Every structure is written in structure tokens, then in C-alpha cells.
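agent> Task received from the user: take the single chain below, predict its 3D structure, and emit C-alpha cells. No templates, no multimer pairing.
agent> Plan: (1) validate residues, (2) run structure prediction, (3) serialize to C-alpha cells, (4) report one or two observations.
agent> Step 1 OK, no nonstandard residues flagged.
tool_call: predict_structure(input=
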Amino acid sequence: MEYEELELPPPGSRVVVGMSGGVDSTLTALLLKERGCQVTGVTMSMWADGDLPDLDEAAALKHVHDSCYGPGEKQDIDECRTFCAEQGIPYHVIDVREAYRREVLQYFKNEYRAGRTPNPCIRCNRFIKFGALLSGLPAVGIEYDYFCTGHYAKVVRGRDSVASSYGESAYASSEGQERPAQIAVSNDKGKDQAYFLCRIPSPVLEKVRFPLGSFTKKDVFAMAGERGLKAASRAESQDFIPPEYFDALFSDEPSVPGNFTDLDGNVLGRHKGIEHYTVGQRRGLGISAKDPLYVAAINRESNTVVLGKDCDLFSSALEAVDMVWPASYNPRCSFDAEVKIRLASSPVRARVTARADGSCTVIFEQRQRAVAPGQSVVFYRDGVIAGGGIIDRAIP
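)
tool_result: status=success, residues=396
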């Protein structure tokens, strides 16, 4: 299937830019202004004082820009406001705290307590950055033609119907005849963020653009340096929350200790609560053994954490649920794709079978390590996201 990248906002168009204070979003706003667009900067307010206990001064300074959620938000907003004032760009802060607590924080805690590994960034993009934030713009009088962010990705449209991209056996339906906007990978494969954007609905994508999708991170730093942007010297955000906040986030309910077992059910020791562990984890287990041990599985019903050797972590396939498809079109067929089971993993060849009940089976061409229930599996065809879902179980 051939795809064409959707054009960037034309001069004179009204463009809202989601800003974090980092170099990517700051440069995005400036490039669009230079293009002749009517740019408005907006930042999401997610943090409220008292949400979590304060870190000591040293830890706070260390993590002020490490995380997208934390007390460093105030400094981020101040930096965005200063930049926009210098550039003559209108700037607004959109309060999304209630939606963030409900859709991201509570989801994060629920998933870990269910013995699953959540992906808060994908959830945030779907319901907050490309959801609650956009819904909040009319309340402050903002109308827009396009919404842009500093993500490394592209928005494209297929030259033929979406159904044709899955092959002749794809299910025939009206949705399949559409040519929806879809997410494609960026030119910088090492920085690509398409995976994080897999759940944004096609209708929302029609007004979304990613001006940095054709550049590498090196290009971005060079352009920022040429323009004297202070944001070019800022550290990039890394974690959802600082590690120091993890225990505080889960302090609303007591942890329930249980048993570490091996694959045969033999008790190896005691764990401090399943929310502290994820599949593939090695550090922090506190179990001595002849060979290194890793978390191989987590069983909420029995409150056990199953440990195994590295060789026990590999899976030949997985089952996925809660699927998303371009134009909400379920192809209900089998097709070949490149698949990612986490952001940091390389795409691998797989056979995907989409079923009418909304579930999906993925059979890997080569076995994959540490397939974690709760994480997102994303399918790519020709460098374009063709669907994805939430990993329900790994098949050893």
C-alpha cells in the first residue's frame, strides 16, 4: 500500500501547539510561527500540590524535569509562558487534573494491582493530550484548524481503501472503504514515537500534525541552536513519575505480601506485593539462587510472583484484547506485520489474526522475551500503524 504524508498547516491557519517546555515542542511552535501560522501555545496542568508527598530538595532538583508528572510542572509552565511571551504567541494552561487522575493515575494503579504492566504514556495520549486537552480548548475561547505536538511521527493517508492494506481476505464493510488518517513512523528510527500514538482515533488525527516527523533529533538540536532556544539545553523527560514517588502513589491501599514460587509451584520466598513487580524484572527480588532469577509471571488470584531463568521468559505468541484499528475497521483476517511489544523493542515479523469478537492472536516469527500482559502490542505495515491492542497473555 502506498501512503502520502498529510501536509503541514498552511500559512495563516490557526494552530494550537501542545507545549511541555522541552526542545521538541518549543521548536515546533517556532517553526510553525516562521511558516506564517497563527500559533497558540497550550500546556496541560496535571499536577496538584499535595497529590503526593514532597521529595527532599536534592531529589526534587534531580527529578524536576525527569518526569511528565510531578512538581516540576510549575517550572515547565513558567518556561513555556516566557518563551511564548518573547515570541508574541498567545499561551494558555488547560486544567486536565481530574481526567488525568481518573484515566492515567487510577489506571496505572489498577493495572499493577492486577498483576499487569501498564503503559501510562499511551493512555495519556489517547485520553488526555489528544482528549481532555483538546476538549478544554473551547472553554478558554480557542478555535483551531490544526493541533501540533513535538512527537517524532507522521500522519499519512493511504492511496487506497484501508481494507486493501490487509489483503484480499479482509472483511468487507463500509469502514473498510474509508481512507483514514493514520500514524506512520518518523525519519529518526531511534527516536520514533509512533508506538505511543497508536490509540488516537482516526477522526482526531485528521487535524493533527507532527512537524518534526521528517527530522532527526540531531537536526532538531541544530535548528534549536541556530535559533538560540534555551530549551535546547534542557534535559528530556524520561519517566512517567520519579521512582521515589512510586511507593507514595500506591500508599492509598496496603500492599499484600505473598509467595515467590518457581515454575513448579515451589515456594522460594516472600514478595512485598504484586504491584512492585513486572514480567522480566531481575532487580529487587531479594532471592538468592545459583542462576539469576527473573519475574516470569504474576498471578493475582493466588497473589504469587513466579520466578524463572532467562530462558523461561520467551514466548512464541500472544493474545491481545481491547483492539484499535484505523477508522475502527476490524479486518477480521490473518495478515503479516511487523510487531512491537514495547517501545524499546525492535519490530519483529509476526502473523496477526484478527477475530470478529475483538480479540487477536499474534504468532512471532522469532520468540520474544518478557511479553508482559497489560503492555501494548502494535502492528505496522509499510511503516504505518495498522492496529494494536493490549496484551492479555503470553503463550510460552
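agent> Step 4: summary for the user.
Residues 153 and 214 are 8 Å apart (CA to CA).
agent> Done.
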